[in-house]
């Protein structure tokens, strides 16, 4: 007994219609994705950031491209946690979650008699800060705290691994570039180029090992070509001419 099946086949005109439908759906999804990304980018650009003054710009040593900004930062507060991971990219997820938890309500007022008051949802700021040295095996992740707070008024973290600190006035040499959160290799190369440039200019790096990375946009919604990253080192302000 032989069984036969009639398998329908699509005519060329039908295949063309299916292909056009697929392209239309893909274009619509891409448009929605890009629209959401641009919206997120605009929101991040309007977040409060630490105040600083650009003292000078220097062309960075190859193979990196662009300029180095020498900045003088005013004091500001941060919420910081330490992650037992030397890779800044790997440490970012854990550290971000802890600091975000504090900002979004895992905190308590500093005033007496207010223990029952619900945690305060604080305004988001920018950038997300990462800092550390390869030899320590640890990375510090921190969020900037809005300027309306002082050490006396800022809410206390409930999570004991999060600490509120004041960052004193300081000088940074920073380079900016777009793309996804930078790999450890990218961070290393950018730092080396910064240090080489500073040596030529006679500007002293304060810590021979510390590297600072700033991320100004989310790593998921904002398209990589719009994301702003920075790698920086602290410098001695007395050596900045």
Would you kindly provide a written description of the structure presented here, covering whatever features stand out?
With 241 residues, the protein is an alpha+beta fold. Helices cover 28% and strands 29% of the residues. It is built from three helices and eleven strands. It has helices at 12-45, 88-103, 184-201, and strands spanning 52-59, 67-73, 76-83, 107-108, 128-133, 138-145, 156-157, 162-167, 170-178, 211-215, 228-235. The strands form two sheets. The chain has a nine-stranded antiparallel sheet with strand order 1-2-9-11-10-5-6-3-8, with helices on one face. Strands 4-7 form a two-stranded antiparallel sheet. The longest helix is centred in the first third of the chain and has 34 residues, at 12-45. The model has no long low-confidence stretch (mean pLDDT 89).
Top keywords for this entry?
241 residues; alpha+beta; nine-stranded antiparallel beta sheet; two-stranded antiparallel ribbon; 11 strands; 28% helix; 29% strand; globular
Explain briefly what this protein structure is:
The chain is α+β, with helices and mostly antiparallel strands and 241 residues long. It is built from three helices and eleven strands. The model has no long low-confidence stretch (mean pLDDT 89).
């Amino acid at each position: 007994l032989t069984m036969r099946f009639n398998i329908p086949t699509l005519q060329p005109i039908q295949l063309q219609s299916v292909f056009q439908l697929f392209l239309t759906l893909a274009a619509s999804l891409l448009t929605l994705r890009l629209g959401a990304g641009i919206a997120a980018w605009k929101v991040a650009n309007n977040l409060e950031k630490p105040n600083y003054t650009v003292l000078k710009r220097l062309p960075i040593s190859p193979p990196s491209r662009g300029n180095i900004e020498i900045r003088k930062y005013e004091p500001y507060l941060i919420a910081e946690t330490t992650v037992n991971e030397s890779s800044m990219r790997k440490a970012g997820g854990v550290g971000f979650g802890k600091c975000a938890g504090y900002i979004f309500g895992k905190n308590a007022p500093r005033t007496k008699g207010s223990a029952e008051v619900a945690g305060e949802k604080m305004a988001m700021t920018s950038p997300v800060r990462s800092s550390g040295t390869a030899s320590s095996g640890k990375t510090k992740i921190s969020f900037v705290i809005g300027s309306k707070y002082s050490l006396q008024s800022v809410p206390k973290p409930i999570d004991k691994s999060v600490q509120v600190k004041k960052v004193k006035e300081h000088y940074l040499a920073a380079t900016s570039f777009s793309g996804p959160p930078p790999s450890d290799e990218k961070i290393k190369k950018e730092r080396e180029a910064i240090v080489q440039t500073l040596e030529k200019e006679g500007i002293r790096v304060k810590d021979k090992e510390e590297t600072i990375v700033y991320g100004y946009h989310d790593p998921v919604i904002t398209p990589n070509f719009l994301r702003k990253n920075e790698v920086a080192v602290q410098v001695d302000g007395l050596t900045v001419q």
